[in-house]
Design brief:
Length: about 375
């Protein structure tokens, strides 16, 4: 297409005047010369293209320089130790070549990005501060992991426990419940149960500060067995069993050491503070060995008689008031030790039953 020789505007064939400057184009080839586009257009194009090229180069450099490692710095340091590269960029092939990784006790908080270790088979991350283990599900080659000692919820039906079960279902060997020993000085522990928060509740007896008597003892511990709080109950009590109740508190049974004929039932809140306590003072009752909350919110108790022969099964309401009592023993050496409500609303009980031979009593277990 021809251009105006005066201003360079494109002109359609057969037009004799430039639509831009009005110059007569005449008939000569010189007036209708096919001219290149003005230099101004090239400058405008250059102004657009050069910034785009700069942005593209910068983006490529950013992507190349961005670490391929995980987000947690302590976990990245463990990876660097594993691949023997203390400094510089970690290439993706370096991460994918890690088969075993030990990051235990390094203060790791997050596992985000660990899925880049596609060949990882054995992972040790115990004794850290990890609260989310879901990235482990993205490791296709993982076959063994140690995650105990982290900030995980080990209670029943917790999300963390569900994630662990998913890992196990994929064939991964998971170590996440810590083995530990704890000594609680000054008394004896007779009962323990795991609580809803993954910790433990313990019950027993503790010697008083003046050493002249023993008191009921209740201890709340975290999931590592470390004491959270401790409560003693003055009055010569001994706690033989404890259970967490539906309201988050605890029900405790035992007996009065000053008089073994007194059965004791104590209800506390979740902090171990007494809500109510009942002493079964009529002489047919002795110490209580076991208590469980029942479906109606009340309690079922088993224990020994005090001044008479035999053992007893006692049902109470939600305040510990007696509803009914049953005698299940034939002599003073029989003993009921544990009770639990069954799915049909009844109860299953275990204990001992004694036989007599030449005035010697032989206990038979499991009756």
């Amino acid at each position: 297409m021809p251009f105006c020789t005066n201003c360079g505007t494109e002109v359609k064939e057969g037009v004799n005047f430039c639509p831009n400057c009005g110059k007569s184009l005449g008939e000569s080839k010189q007036d209708r010369a096919v001219l290149p586009k003005p230099a101004g257009n090239k400058k405008r194009i250059t102004k657009i293209i050069i910034p785009l090229i700069i942005v593209a180069v910068a983006l490529a450099a950013f992507v190349w320089m961005k670490p391929n490692a995980v987000s947690d710095k302590n976990l990245e340091n463990a990876i660097r130790t594993s691949v023997n590269q203390p400094k510089g960029k970690l290439a993706l092939e370096d991460l994918q070549g890690v088969v075993e990784l030990d990051a235990s006790g390094m203060g790791v908080k997050s596992l985000k990005g660990i899925e880049k270790l596609a060949s990882l088979e054995v992972l040790k991350i115990h004794d850290n501060r990890i609260s989310d283990i879901t990235p482990l599900l993205e490791l296709p080659a993982l076959r063994e992991v140690e995650i105990e000692g982290n900030e995980l919820d080990t209670s029943l039906n917790s999300p963390d426990r569900e994630f662990v079960e998913e890992l196990k279902a994929k064939g991964v060997k998971v170590s996440w419940l810590t083995t530990f020993e704890r000594c609680y000085e000054g008394g004896s522990i007779f009962a323990i149960q795991q609580t809803e928060d993954g910790g433990y509740i313990l019950a027993g007896v503790k010697q008083s500060s003046d050493l002249d008597r023993y008191n009921g003892w209740l201890i709340k511990a975290d999931n590592m067995g470390n004491e959270v709080w401790s409560r003693t109950f003055d009055g010569g009590e001994r706690f033989d069993t404890v259970q967490q109740t539906d309201d988050g508190g605890y029900i405790i049974s035992g007996w009065m050491r000053d008089n073994a004929a007194l059965g004791l039932l104590v209800k506390t809140d979740e902090e171990g503070e007494v809500v109510w306590s009942n002493i079964f003072s009529n002489t047919v009752y002795g110490g209580f060995h076991s208590v469980r909350q029942t479906n109606d919110g009340g309690y079922i108790i088993v224990g020994e008689e005090g001044n008479t022969d035999g053992t007893w099964l006692i049902k109470t309401d939600e305040k510990g008031n007696e509803v009914w009592v049953k005698d299940y023993a034939s002599n003073r050496y029989d003993s009921l030790r544990c009770v639990q409500q069954t799915s049909d609303g009844g109860y299953v009980i275990v204990g001992t039953k004694a036989t007599v031979s030449n005035n010697v009593y032989f206990p038979q277990y499991g009756d």
